[in-house]
Amino acid sequence: MSVTIYRDPERSPAAAFRLDSLDGYALVSERRMVDIPAGDAELRFEGVAGGIFPETAIVTGVPDGVIEKKRDAWLLSPGSLLDAALGKRVHLRRTSRDTGAVRELEAVVRSGAGGAVILQTGDGIETLRCTGLAETVGYRAVPEGLSAKPTLSIRTRSRAAVRVPITLSYLAAGFDWQANYVAEVDERRKRMDLFAWLTLANGEETGFVGADAQAVAGRVNRDPNRPDSPEGTPLTLRCWPAGTTTSDLREIRPERGRLVSRLGGEDIVVTGSRLREESLSALPAVMAVREELGDLKLYRIPEPVTVAARSQKQVALLHQARIPIEIVYRSRFLYAPWQGGATRTIVARNRSETNLGLPLPGGAVHLFDMRGSRRLLTGRGEIGDRAVGEDVEITAAESGAVRVDIVRISETTTQIINRMVVSNARPHPVRFEADTGGVTIDAPAAARAAGDDARPWAVTIPANGRREAIYRYAKR
Q1: Which residue in 8, 46, 209, 289 has its CB near the most CB atoms, within 10 A?
Q2: Pair 329, 400: CB distance under 8 Å
């Protein structure tokens, strides 16, 4: 089994997965030994991904070829089972909640699974589970056309009975992947250690056990439309028998910073995300291997893994230590009045001489600063896709120590004049940069970033000090 996952190109690298609506896709390939009888036969590949694109399925190894292929459209579920029994007899079993007495009778299904399910019994017309009794519907057999698993069927024609290895390959929707970074920042030494997880997400009802897993970085030209997945209709019943309308009320109570939900006597504890405390200096036992795939990058997991249904799998992606960094505080020249903190930004160069020099797939970054032997979370940012040679900028939280105050000085019929005052409450100097936003700045030439029109004012703010600049907006 092999699963190669391609990212959703429209999703922000730092956005969290939603397993019920993943818009990436996967190339799935599996090899099975099959006994093919002589003549015409039907082979059913059970357990394919529910989001399979049937038109992309390729079956190789059939000696005399494939006549046709199809995907079974309906999955076995309480709703689809009831829908398939429409107009047919079922067995109804009722149990008294008070006495435990059981009554069994035959019924004919007169409406489907959506809404109030109508049954016809010897007592007349009634609706399922609206009597106040515990009711169970039994079926004589699974109706034809319902499959317990997503299934791809092919028709074959063979001149003789043979046992052959068959390979099935197809594209399927409902997958995605991303990089999740952890950066350990040493501000005093102006360096950081960077670690990343390769996170694979499978939103399908089918899992893949012991699969060779890969992830592809880069944009692939393909049809973005998602196929209709095989459906497993839920059983939706709309009635409120007497005495049961409060059966699903839940007691929610706070408990020392935790949220505890009591349901059926069981505590379900919801806590904040827990971050691992191991040192980033320890190399992981298994790490994805980067390979070239034309203009794309392939990240291959070197040993088989299980990509379970409706779940995520994480494998180490990279680990780079002692990367030189620069910490910059940034803002923009804005309309007055305005007050706020400058944005703390970590800047590194993606070059081999800076202990990087490798393609970096986009993803969220959690930033930690060291305090003695402890790591403390200081912000969350993101990295976009960065090629070798590009600058890497990680935007963290808004600073409470480096503040920007913008005030109006004057206004005429042709222009507005404002003053930006930047203050630094930290015990050491910091670098500050301001984007122009198309304004004219009255500041010393030495304070401008040479050759950088997008960021024309770059200054060092002294410890517990301040700097200011006058700037003008032309009225149109």
Answers
A1: 8
A2: no
The 10s digit of each residue's pLDDT in 88-126 is 888 888 888 778 888 888 988 887 766 678 888 888 888
For residue 435, give every residue at least 6 positions away whose Cβ sits within 8 Å of its Cβ, in sequence order, or none: 330, 331, 332, 333, 454, 455
pLDDT in tens, 427-476: 999 999 988 776 777 765 434 444 444 556 889 999 999 998 888 887 77
Helices and strands of the chain, counted as H and E runs: 1, 33
Please name the residue that has the structure tokens 């394919």: 48
- Adjacent-strand bridge partners of 433: 330, 458
Q: Which residue has the tokens 């409902």?
A: 174
Q: Which of 85, 94, 39, 44 is nearest to 64 (CA)?
A: 39
- d(C-alpha 232, C-alpha 146), whole Å: 9
Pairing verdict, β 74-75 and 146-147: parallel
Distance of CA 201 to the CA centre of its chain: 6
pTM: 0.70
Listed in sequence order, the residues at least 6 apart from 262 whose beta carbon sits closer than 8 Å to its beta carbon are 250, 251, 252, 253
Q: Give the model's confidence band at 76: pLDDT under 50 very low, under 70 low, under 90 confident, else very high.
A: low
The torsion angles phi and psi of 446, rounded to 5 degrees, stand at -65, -20
| pLDDT beyond 70 at 226 | no
Give the integer Cα–Cα distance in Å for 261 and 252.
Answer: 5
CB-side exposure of 447: number of CA atoms within 13 Å?
15
Query: 451-468 b/e with 16+ CB inside 10 Å = b?
Result: eeeeebbbbebeeeeebe
Burial 51-67 (b: 16+ CB within 10 A, else e): bbbeeebebeebeeebe
- Cα four-point dihedral sign 78, 80, 81, 83: positive
Question: Which residue in this structure is represented by tokens 């350990």?
Answer: 184
HSE-CB for 306 with a 13 A CA cutoff: 7
Give the DSSP letter of residue 386: B
What tokens were used for 185? 């920042």
Q: For residue range 362-416, what is the model confidence (pLDDT) as tens digits?
A: 999 999 987 777 888 888 888 888 989 999 999 888 898 999 999 999 888 888 8
Contact predicate 389/350, CB 8 Å: yes
Closest CA to 408 of 470, 465, 360, 350: 470
